[in-house]
Amino acid sequence: MNDATFLHRQPIVPRRAFSLLELLAVVTILGVIAAIVLPRVTQGNDKAKQSVCAHNTGQLNSAIERYYLDNGVWPSANLSELGVSGGTYFPDGLPTCPVSSQAYRIDPSGATKHVVGHTNGDHSP
């Protein structure tokens, strides 16, 4: 080989990195996508919790009616009689409201006894 070719070599071109502007554009696009998708995911989660609460309320209303037929009296407002371990109504314990994470209770107002979940009893968080 000729010594002249070694002296006149082209310098190695470094790899081009992303510019700050390109990185900001990507982060902005990801932020917009997250802002669109996240509310839809959490809204579905809230609807599922409300659906479970409505199901639990129906099951508890059925149980308090059976309790009344079996014993001739309504259970206490906190439903402690229904959740007795090994009992007939809820042997694994009473369910809790998935919306408020609180225990269900009997609504004391009105002539008919019925169970309510969260504060308003209307299945809204």
TrEMBL record:
One cellular component (GO) term of this entry: type II protein secretion system complex
Recorded superkingdom: Bacteria
InterPro entries xrefs: Bac_GSPG_pilin (IPR000983), N_methyl_site (IPR012902), Pilin-like (IPR045584)
Subcellular location(s) per record: Membrane
Any Gene Ontology biological process: protein secretion by the type II secretion system
Keyword terms, alphabetized: Membrane, Methylation, Transmembrane, Transmembrane helix
Organism the protein comes from: Botrimarina hoheduenensis
A Pfam family of this chain: N_methyl
Transmembrane segments: 20-41
Keyword Transmembrane helix: yes
PANTHER family: GENERAL SECRETION PATHWAY PROTEIN G, TYPE II SECRETION SYSTEM CORE PROTEIN G
Identification of the protein by name: Type II secretion system protein G
Membrane topology term: Single-pass membrane protein
